[in-house]
């Protein structure tokens, strides 16, 4: 009952096979290999347009490099106040941007709203050079609350951002789950809605370690190569990153994996709700946030359940837990099985009966 | 009717005279001059203990260098969410700390409370290396809302900070006004209450441009000289900074100036309240925040009044303005006269009668 | 005839097999997995002492993080003036150290000498805070000229460094080749000779992408976790880096690979010298630097030879090429075969006969 | 006999008077005052063209901000290997540029030559993203060896720089001495010869603390305001910097001061040469570098002489001292009198007689 993170899963078999296939013969070092070129072409196809691409191996690197492309050190990046870039990357955005400021916008269910963004930008502390001026908006898709922006929601936020001169970045650590959930094309969910740069994550979705920085407005890609090299993220044997992504893009395997993880999470969410438990956020991707009665939490842990306890200020009043509840985050990966979900639900049943 | 800032005032005569006196003969460059040494000794006397001192010419430099002494780049500094270091220094703290994070605590009247600080530190996003760990607390004294922490309030905040391993910095751009208001010794308001480093401001209080970074725990001063030089703040002719401070420290002129500015602000605040206007924050130092009825604001401006309009989320419910009011910040300096205050109040009278 | 770099080679079969074996079941994310722990223990065994270890995937990251552990931003790192950290990492050391200075020491055959180091440290530009003070020495082992410091040469340099308060780092991108060449234990070539931190490279020696930062003085490891996370080098699925290293450390496979590459380079060097060509540097590890007569260079390229042309100011007078010669760097990897070497020598023969 | 530095001198009377005059009434803070505007107009007049200007108080700040305008963090700035920016600013250029690299070019008499610059740029370590690419050339005028580039020498260097895409900065800490020595207009010595940004120093030439960053290609001034604020160099009471510069620009007082200091240095240099001593560099501005026989050095120190001992690798063979000589740097300021110079020469006479 391992629901702690989608990155606790191994790599998909297709990825391992691809690595083995890639492991033959010599190849040009430092990202000039054929596999990398094929991935670049394939991503252009996936997004239905010319793109600039830079491959790295962690989401932190992808996000921090992407944001550094969009902001000067004396400017600010707006993000949700509970965003991964704000809290979970040990200040990587500040490091890569040489000290730009992250400014948090509040928003229920982990989502920034156009009104919230407008209100924040209307505050009187954005006039340079006394203040830092806002340079970019970054949104997580799926969000840290497991919710998903629709294409029109992305578009509405990007409209506000662009009307104020801000560029738009999307942290797509769980982009596959978002695409599968939103059920629109990758293009519609990104550049067609106004996104300038996407951190396209594969690590949580079947890769060993692979992320693509996808720049839609290729004029924004000018210093990408230098930033990657200078931060130590240019692999000499680039084919081994490319091979992973190639395997996952083939036949839309990445979307299939996203769909599968979402389905497991949906089964879990429905099961928990059917047993009277309250979800803190609507289940839209592969994460389930639930208020567990203490005896249920104890029973799950006794049965070997592994998951994070959580906290959030973005929970709607009607979705708050009761005193004593344990706020839990349960994540399903592409490998999570119905049996695992049902096993967990079975333990919940027993605990509820006993209580 | 110039109430826009205490730094619009000229330097005090005593300061100019001191500069003229200092302007004779050769002197050792780069802070090794006799005037600087005298200031260092005098500050030790003022604070009743050994201190390490570094002289600079702007509050931004003093704050940013001081904070950089207290935090690693991958750590966080807690400040009030409307603090000067957060919003008004164009990211200088981020620049000097090489990208540490400023985390804002809310608090009415511009003041952080022990409970608010505790609650923030109890959030679950401070565990390294995923998260940045908190390294320091900085408080403004007087605050950006013109209020003043009592010595025991400083002590209570420092107690919380130190129990969590945080160091404490005080932004004393208006330290003179705070000391005059709190009516305790400089020692009691700082290191005796737990402050490790003070940015001791003179520029807003009669100097041309002079600020002292005063380090009470001298072990925290290790890299001060390098940070000052590397940021271009080591003057070759250091005597001209020292002379200003020396003139203001003599005979406690700085406290007299602080008291005088506070008194003018008090006269102004009482006058406004007597005329039925609402102060947004209690007047405790040399700043008055008031909700001006629109006709009053218009009349003041027509009469040549100069001041900033303001906004804040730290205003108590009972101190909110009415719709249409202009939220104004009026600052008195050591040079503000009763006649100027009364002149302003006279215009208010006329406007209220006309309305 | 691919002699362009040891990182053009694929990963060793043993490494791929290890990745496949690692790809089973769930495992704790972010470097807390069992494979990482085993590697840490194994490295302690290899170096015959307690060590602190941090795993990353590029030599640039390993070097830059290691150097950042050893220097403040306002200090300097001494390296050979043609060192990889100086010229080939796009300023990564400056990025990770937040702007420390690299200062180049000259030295024939790519090696810094104790006298050269002493002379540089005796220059009059190291007194803080005007000047940056030297904080660390970094040496490459094997060097960028393909030469190898003996254990006593390392010790002599470290003695000078430590007598001046400098810490010592070793860039071991080709540490395996150096150990194989010097024929001493890893411990003797590092900490027993005074090295504080080693960048232990595996990528050029059979890994896909894996480097270990090995800290011998564990007190110097304090911020290692934060630096790795903050720079985006903490893998969520850490087992896949660990597995590579584990496979190469097993049964000293890494030394066997180093020895094999060295032997191929030796065969190549002897063959070239036997044909009258001049080596620019003595062949001591897996790199051969040779002055190719232009017709030989042309013939090799016509035959599909791939290698870098080079330049260096560290060539001894007696090892200079003749006008018109092409200065070539030829690198052998653990996969280079005698047949490949002999094939190249055959082309040289033909070219020399034709000339 | 104080010849240690031109910044040991006090401020000129004209400067002090200007400060006193400026000290009346209120004035707009943060560089929006009238005095600053007048200086900006006056500098446009001095340089016979539109310029963008930013006033700061140290040469280190002026240089570091100017260089940061010209280079990305992953690029390099070429300077003379003994330049002030390289050695005497505690890494300020690296701090302000967020880690760009300074690369030193050699050159006799402290001057870079077009051939030397070309040779350095022809080295093979400038190709991004592996290497840092060169972004700017900075030259000191007068140089650290007290020599002066002629306008045509500046032009020749700028031609090389611009043909390779580099921008050109001039460190004019002693610009007045250079203009007085070269006897051409400020325009001819700067932008007409290809200089993009000048650090125009006043501190060593009669100011208390004042330097102007003068940007000739105003497109390069885009982020100047933010860099100054963020580094703590924006004074709230800007009139006090402007007043100093205004006083020195009036009636070309700055050039008169430069000429006077040069004349004193000339008198000193001729006197020393007439006594058989060897100058290490030709005397062209206000600095004299001389090899003092040890007894002369001892006699001078006994008589209260204060000056720095020096070292340089840029001394021509025919200008080297004899073993045992003390390499001394003697600086004349605008305040140095003939009597002081003759006093020093008198001590030399006595020492030579005694020897």
TrEMBL record, chains A, B, C, D:
The keyword Lyase applies. This is L-threonine aldolase. Keywords: Lyase, Pyridoxal phosphate. It catalyses: L-threonine = acetaldehyde + glycine; L-allo-threonine = acetaldehyde + glycine. It comes from the Bacteria. The keyword Nucleotide-binding does not apply. Its cofactor is pyridoxal 5'-phosphate.
